[in-house]
Write a structure and sequence with these properties.
The chain is α+β, with helices and mostly antiparallel strands and 387 residues long. It has helices spanning 75-82, 87-112, 130-137, 140-145, 148-167, 257-279, 289-292, 317-329, 338-345, 368-383; strands at residues 26-30, 37-38, 59-62, 172-174, 180-184, 190-195, 205-211, 215-222, 227-233, 237-243, 246-249. It is 34% helix and 15% strand. It has an eight-stranded antiparallel β-sheet, with helices on both faces. A hairpin with a 5-residue loop joins strand 5 and strand 6. The relative contact order is 0.07.
Length: 387
């Protein structure tokens, strides 16, 4: 260990020079980037990897174990050193940063995939979002071509048909999810979803009706005190809002929670059910035997007695149609309508005769009971608006 004063080579660890008696200055080499102690001939810092060849002054004098306070690297020095990192180091940092972002996106997508009907309670809609919903809902171009009254009339007609088909058990009921009733057609299309108010801790029960092409067309939220109705058309446009009997059309609709909430909930339920359906279609398969396996008649012995009008009051549109066509089916009438044909082919008493069809049929085949009963059913269908 050489003395800085006289140049005498002292023993390692000596505190004073054996020649001139001066205190020996201990010389240490430190990385100018992170402050870690380094070797005199090191090319890179063993701690941070900094390229030591780019800066010559790495000496930091320390005499006889001076205070560690002097060893601290100032923030400005660190910032200055970081700016001197070579391009390779910067690329590595960039790659790490991008990787962190990618991992975050993947985690978010994995969480999104859990948004199924089984964890539906995790979903929540910010009510403040409805302000944006109402702002985006109105479109001047659409308004010029939109006939609200006719659109609502068509929606009511579609909903009435769905209700009749449900009452006639033409749809499969899936009630396997808590607080939900989902009615599905034979083709797997959702027709109606009923939501209990306990779902998402809301104060209203909800009903949603769907069209195969448009999607959500009608929503209803209700309790013992209030009723809210929403009519939707293409592109999720709210065309009519009714609150406790007070009706508002299109751009005159006031801002309210339920118009936005029902649209978002109705769409989410629809999409999540179809996602579950696609993943495990066996759980939601529609069984034709549910509606078509019974061997009984809608109106028993309608060929041997006069039926009473009171017998028709409990029948829906589909059942009335079946009861009327039972009269022809007894003769083996060959139906062109696929639904009717499939229905009667599942009846043990029906024997199809291809020679008896609309081209060869004559009402002369019917007896007086059958003619009277058919006419009564037709009259009742007209009275109910089914024909």
């Amino acid at each position: 260990m050489k003395c800085s004063n006289c140049g005498y080579d002292n023993d390692s660890g000596s505190l004073f020079c054996a020649n001139c008696g001066k205190k020996i200055e201990i010389i240490k080499y430190r990385c100018s980037c992170c402050g870690n102690e380094i070797g005199k001939d090191d090319l890179f810092c063993g701690s941070c990897g900094y390229n030591l060849s780019k800066k010559e002054n790495h000496l930091e004098s320390r005499v006889n174990n001076k205070s560690q306070h002097n060893n601290k690297i100032q923030p400005n020095d660190i910032l200055k050193s970081l700016t001197n990192l070579d391009k390779k180091k910067k690329r590595i940092i960039s790659i790490i940063f991008i990787a962190i972002i990618a991992i975050g996106i993947v985690c978010k997508l994995m969480y999104k995939e859990t948004d199924s009907l089984d964890n539906y309670d995790n979903l929540y809609y910010e009510e403040s979002e409805y302000k944006k919903f109402f702002k985006d809902n109105y479109n001047e171009v659409t308004a010029q071509d939109l006939d609200v009254d006719q659109s609502v009339k068509d929606i009511k007609k579609d909903c009435k048909k769905i209700k009749n088909d449900i009452s006639n058990k033409r749809y499969h009921l899936d009630n396997s999810h808590e607080n939900l009733e989902i009615y599905v057609s034979k083709d797997g299309d959702i027709k109606e979803i009923k939501v209990n108010k306990d779902k998402k801790s809301q104060e209203c029960d909800r009903e949603y009706y769907y069209d195969d092409y448009i999607g959500l067309i009608y929503a209803r939220a209700y309790n013992d005190e209030h009723e809210y109705e929403m009519y939707y058309t293409y592109d999720d446009i709210l065309i009519r809002y009714i609150k406790d009997g007070d009706s508002y059309d299109y751009k005159k609709i006031p801002e309210n929670k339920w118009s936005y909430f029902t649209l978002e909930e109705g769409k989410d339920l629809y999409e999540m059910y179809h996602d579950d359906y696609d993943e495990d279609s066996d759980d939601y398969s529609y069984n034709d035997e549910d509606d078509y396996s019974s061997t009984d008649y809608i109106l028993l012995n309608s060929d041997e007695r006069y039926i009473d009008k009171s017998e028709l009051s409990s029948l829906g549109q589909w059942q009335l149609r079946l009861a009327r066509n039972e009269i022809y089916a007894r003769y083996g009438y060959s139906f062109e309508d696929e639904e009717l044909r499939r229905y009667f082919l599942n009846k043990s008493w029906y024997e199809e005769d291809s020679s008896i069809n609309k081209d060869t049929w004559s009402d002369d085949c019917l007896n007086e009971y059958e003619k009277a009963n058919r006419n009564l059913i037709v009259s009742y269908e007209e009275e109910m608006g089914y024909r």
